[in-house]
Structure formats: C-alpha cells, structure tokens
Queue: 2 jobs
Job 1
Amino acid sequence: GAVVSQHPSWVICKSGTSVKIECRSLDFQATTMFWYRQFPKQSLMLMATSNEGSKATYEQGVEKDKFLINHASLTLSTLTVTSAHPEDSSFYICSATGTSGRIYGEQFFGPGTRLTVL
Amino acid sequence: GNSVTQMEGPVTLSEEAFLTINCTYTATGYPSLFWYVQYPGEGLQLLLKATKADDKGSNKGFEATYRKETTSFHLEKGSVQVSDSAVYFCALVKHNNNDMRFGAGTRLTVKP
C-alpha cells in the first residue's frame, strides 16, 4: 500500500509553453500533498504544500503564479509550470500523506518527473 | 528551526565493505527520523525509520538507531553490494507536523 504515482515521468517542452504534472495517491486518501524540486546532485527543496480543497502554501522564493498547484481531490494534485524557461528544468517530485493507519507525518513519494525546457 | 546534517559524499567503497553515513539533527521535541534512498533517475524510497529514542530501524541489511543523547541517526550496513549504489537522504519530521526536512544527501558508489 501507500503508492504514489506521477505522470509524466519525463517531459521535454519548448520555452514559453506550460507543462502540467500529475501526482496521484493510488491506494489511500492524501489529505496533504507536497511538491519538491531537485536539482542535479542536490537535495530536495520543498516548493509548496497543498491540502485537499485549499489553496497551496508556497515556500519562500517560490513563485505561486509560475508554479500553479491544484489539489481538487483526495487522490490527485497537479503542478503546472507556466511559461516554462530553461532554468525551470529540474526533477520534480511529489509526496503525499494521509491521516489513517500510518505514522503521522510519514510521506510517500512519487517516482518524480524530469522536466527539460529547451 | 528543524534541520538535518548528513555526511557529505561522495562515498566510494568496495563490495562487502562496512558502510556508515552520519546524520545528526536539530529539532525541538521528538521528531521521527527517516532514511530514504534514491536510485538514479528515480524518486525517493523509504529505507527505514524510527519514531522515538532508542528505536532501531532496519531494512535490507541497513540499520540506524535513534540516539537522542547525541541527536544522531547514523546509517550502517555491514557488507555493501554494488546494487546499494545510490544517494541516501536522512530526514526528519516533527510529530503533528507535515514539514519534512532533508539532509543534503550522500552519494554512495560501491565498486566490485
């Protein structure tokens, strides 16, 4: 149990276009989902936290108008990178946590999405 | 604030060598502690965890003990394999708080 999927696993797009990344919890209800960004050979940096049905809370320095997060259901959150530029190229990882049958605060991670902006 | 400091890599070992990756934390209260592993091109996989002092997490031959007195959660394995080559992240999360903090990651390469 506790499987989180991401789609797509990789995407290449042209500069100026928008890209949507989906994060799904497959076998549990994810009351909270997290979006991380990972640059090559670096650690994960939290971008935002989203609770189902609420607006996402963004970390300092993350542009909320550029990285649109929607968490409309208990099993799906989406991250849309708007008007992507080459500096947005990165590995984006989502995670999810629920409130039943698990140690509180444990996050289950998706496999990541590699975004390359040309 | 809460933070995790882990041994910088990269670490290169020969197969069957002993592994230690140090991790220390700073947190108020009693956080839960985790080790995650990331294989090339993949997301994070939970390796082991411990939720209270003196707990020992173990999985796939890896172990880590929650040491409150030294605020540490060092990862150890008695005999590493080539397949253990990956990046290892130490992390903490406080109870009643979803805010997870990661260490910088330690890249391990095991050579045959």
Note: The mean pLDDT of chain B is 92.
Job 2
Amino acid sequence: EAGVVQSPRYKIIEKKQPVAFWCNPISGHNTLYWYLQNLGQGPELLIRYENEEAVDDSQLPKDRFSAERLKGVDSTLKIQPAELGDSAVYLCASSFSRQSEQFFGPGTRLTVL
Amino acid sequence: DQQVKQNSPSLSVQEGRISILNCDYTNSMFDYFLWYKKYPAEGPTFLISISSIKDKNEDGRFTVFLNKSAKHLSLHIVPSQPGDSAVYFCAASASSGTYKYIFGTGTRLKVLA
C-alpha cells in the first residue's frame, strides 16, 4: 500500500516569492492534515480537512497561507508571499477518520533566502 | 504554552540495554497518547499508543506506561538496537474535542553498538 506522497521534497526560494506544496493521501483516508515542523520542535497542526471541508484551520496564518483539497483527495498548501520565518518542514498526514492513527508523508523542506 | 513536554532533548544507550523516554502533559482532558519515531529526511511513523483507560500497552520490544495522576507517560524499549536510533515524539489528544494531536519537542535516541 502506497503511503502519503508529498512533493517537492525540497524547495529553495527567495523571500516574497510564492510557493506551493502538494500532498496525495493514502487511498480511502478521509481526513488530511498539514503540519509545520520547525527545527527542534514537534509538528504543529496548520489545517485539517474532513473530505473537502476545512474543519480546523485556526493555526493557519490566513494572510499569506492558503490550502485547498479539491474533490476530497489531493491537497495543496500555498504560501504567498514567503517570509524568512517560513523556512521549515511542511508535513502532510492522513487518517481514515479523525479518531484514527495519522500516517505522515516525508515532508517538504522549505528554505526561504 | 507547551502542553506536551519532553524534557530530555537527547539520550544515549548501549545496545541491548533499556531505553526510557519520558513525556509530561498538562491538559487533563488528554485521553489518548501516542509515540512516533522519526528518521532523518522521513516523516514521523506511528510506534505505539495508549488510551487513558489503560496504564500499560506493550508491542514487542516497545512498552508505553501511563501515569494519569502524574500526567506522565514513558516509552520503554527493551532491548535497544542500533536501528532504534531516531527522534521520538510523544503526542496527546482529547476525544472530547477535535482529536487534534499535540506533539512534544522530541527526544533524540542514540543506541551505541
């Protein structure tokens, strides 16, 4: 069974540029999560989707971050414009339901110069 | 406000000996706890979990203990193997809320051959 797929794995951009991350969850998983992981910290939830509905986006900085999950499968997380402090690993995870164990993808390491 | 704390950033153990990783939490609403293991350049992978109705859960070499009165949980690995060298995150969630995972900052375990 394929795991959670994320791309790109690494991204280097200059500040003020836009960037987008893509996630394909495990087939059949209705719940999708985007996490931010800073160096030396644990993952922090940015947004959670139940199918195509964003049900918890309280930690998403909405002035520059946006996300979508069209058709309740793949998801895209966008930052526009990127700031130096956005340099981090962005993790996508999925689960069958919100009560179920979460499976993580390998993450996208973003470096903003 | 760190609701889940892992106060030991790193731990070194000889191969074959016991590794004990600790985690403390502050929110009494948490009733489900998990441990994730993370290798470099990979996403966290689920290791073991425990519900608050139990005080111990065992899976092979891995055992998690929960002390609700002390708001403390620990992960025991016996015997430790070099392949166990990784960063270990504990996480907690509340079934009365959104099941959102709150992660600790991680403990880097190094098992010496």
Note: Chain B has a mean pLDDT of 95.
